[in-house]
Specification:
single chain, about 290 residues, alpha/beta, Rossmann fold, Cobalt-precorrin-4 Transmethylase, domain 1, five-stranded mixed sheet, four-stranded parallel sheet, 10 helices, binds iron/sulfur cluster
């Protein structure tokens, strides 16, 4: 059971696993340490998918850029937890930028396994979202790899002599199992290697949120509207049948969301900072049931 707070006739319960995962916490810490050194510090894309936390880091001097060409002054480029492809890293260095690598070690593992499979002449398949920056970076380690989001995507890939499968770290374990089981069924007689590169932080957060959703009157899921893992938490909580609201900040809370509901469950995405969660809890405490 997570933290339980009694206030204004309500019980507010936090999901056991919620908020920053270790990879995001590490990336923020690396960013803060780099900013403390002084000088120009860029990140290619947001360090994390949370607008308020990015605003805080920008206040400390971080400059978020979308393209390397925007790094016009010499300085440091933070590689965010999703990682970047070797080509992007090389292009940044060629511009004279110093790289500080905040890639999550679990993402790095998926990158190295994709590279190893590619080097050993496997046809590499990444189970995930082709548009996600983490997957785009992994593809840089295994040029020509296919990206599929489920067993339907296997298509004629199973005619390849050697198939090697890895996963986006935030992929649903069920989807990954279905895909690899189908590959194994259709791939008999060929060589198939499967690496489970799904991160437990995601799985644990989802399980804890769903367990809590089953015991409360309303679920609040805190996190960036642009955060895929937060949206997925909200979707899973909604699927349990409990009224669920995905809020980015305490200001988005409306009294009607909690009206007549005394047991309030709260969870937060892997990129939601603790200070945002605390602010939200303080707001709920100020409302009577
Ligand atoms: S969700 Fe997992 S893989 Fe992604 S940054 Fe967090 S710890 Fe790393």
């Amino acid at each position: 059971m997570g933290q339980v707070i009694q206030a204004g006739g309500r019980t507010i319960e936090m999901a056991e696993n919620s908020g920053f995962c270790f990879g995001v916490r590490r990336a923020i810490q690396i960013t803060e340490e780099t900013l403390a050194r002084g000088g120009r510090v860029y990140s290619l894309g947001s360090v994390i998918h949370n607008p308020q936390e990015i605003q805080r880091l920008e206040g400390l001097g971080l400059r978020v850029i979308e393209m390397l060409e925007e790094a016009v002054e010499p300085g440091v480029l933070i590689i965010r937890s999703h990682g970047v492809s070797p080509a992007t890293a090389a292009a940044a260095e060629a511009r004279g930028l110093e790289l500080v690598d905040a890639t999550c070690p679990l993402v790095k593992r998926a990158q190295s396994l994709a590279r190893k499979l590619h080097d050993e002449q496997y046809r590499v398949v990444v189970v995930g979202d082709a548009k996600h920056p983490e997957v785009e970076a992994i593809l840089g380690y295994a040029p020509g790899a296919a990206v599929i989001d489920g067993p339907e995507g296997l298509g004629d890939l199973v005619t390849q002599a050697r198939l090697g499968i890895v996963s986006q770290t935030t992929q649903s374990p069920r989807r990954f199992r279905e895909t690899t089981a189908e590959a194994a069924r259709r791939f008999q007689g060929h060589e198939l290697r499967v690496f489970h590169t799904i991160c437990n932080a995601t799985v644990d957060r989802q399980a804890a949120a769903m367990e809590l959703a089953g015991r409360v009157d309303v679920m609040i899921v805190l996190g960036g509207h642009n955060s895929a893992n937060t949206r997925e938490l909200a979707r899973l909580c909604t699927s349990t049948g409990v009224p669920t609201y995905h809020l980015e900040t305490a200001e988005e809370l409306e009294e009607a969301m909690l009206a007549g509901r005394v047991r309030v469950g709260v969870t937060a995405g892997a990129s939601t900072p603790a200070w945002l969660v605390e602010r939200f809890i303080e707001t709920v405490k100020g409302l009577d049931a």
